[in-house]
Amino acid sequence: AKSYCDIKVAICGGGISGSIAANVLSRDRRFEITIFEAGRGGGGRSSTRRSGDFMFDHGAQYISTPKSVDFHNILMEWKEKSVIAEWKGNFGIMKSSVISQAPSSERYVGVPYMNSICKYLVGVDSSIVTQFGRRIRVQPIIQSKSINQDEVISGWNVICNSNNEDLGTYDFLISSDRGFKVLSEDFNVIPQALHPLYLNYLQNTVNSVTSAPILATMIVMKRSIPRDLFGYDGITFQWTEGSDQENNNILGWIARDSSKPNRYEY
């Protein structure tokens, strides 16, 4: 068995899932954790964009009403520690060119920005190392315990895509739904190193997920728009199939970012 803090773990991605994985593992002092994040900062799909003096939540806009007791308890813990706050705005739904009041629902946001959640998760333990601007690929280290035994993966070599820099060898690799994209091209010649049943399940699951590209537009007004003029802090657009508007369903969501708690009024 490896000794104290001698099990090296590489985590691909500094979004919510990667940050939670690092946070949980850091509670066990056997693990030495490094997060590799391609972006300039953490957050992933809950990241925050800076432009001059302005900040935008251009990814996930809020966390909706938790659907499980466990997740509710986590949110309440984050709320107590001022990592998140409830966004008590006025929300509408536009359908068939008519705006109506949205049903009452809980909406939580990171404070002061959405990426504050990931910053909190990886910042609670100084042993978690995060390397930003690192888009990586990995190569499995194959080992045979004996002549008659199947090959197994004994570790992972992590390599920086941009300059082929060797970023180290790790005992375990944790990745997200984009995991197969970090595997080096020669991985497909040694599928026997993983249990074929698990490998096929993972491949089929990942291949069945289709990501829909979106365009996030961040706009700064010269002066604040009074709420009584606009009426809503966020509007969800719902397009009826077969309607005249269906082919023009460009907008899915629009929000007043500064209406979120602990944001600056621009």
Task: Write a brief structural summary.
The chain contains five helices and 16 strands. It has helices at residues 16-25, 69-80, 116-123, 196-207, 227-230; strands at 7-12, 31-37, 49-51, 54-56, 63-64, 84-86, 91-95, 98-101, 107-110, 129-132, 136-144, 151-160, 166-170, 172-174, 234-238, 253-255.
3D architecture notes:
With 266 residues, the protein is an alpha/beta fold. The strands form 5 sheets. The chain has a 4-stranded parallel sheet with strand order 10-2-1-14, covered by helices on one side. A 4-stranded mixed sheet has the order 8-7-15-16, with no helix packed on it. It is 17% helix and 29% strand.
Percent of sequence in beta strands? 25-35%
Mean pLDDT, to the nearest integer, reads 83
- The helix/strand order is EHEEEEHEEEEHEEEEEHHEE
How large is the radius of gyration? Answer: 22 Å
Strand order of the largest sheet: 10-2-1-14
Number of helices: 5
- Biggest sheet details: 4 strands, parallel
Total beta strand runs: 16
Dominant shape: elongated
The secondary-structure class comes to alpha/beta
Low-confidence stretches: none
The helical percent reads 10-25%
Q: In whole angstroms, how far apart are the ends?
A: 56 Å
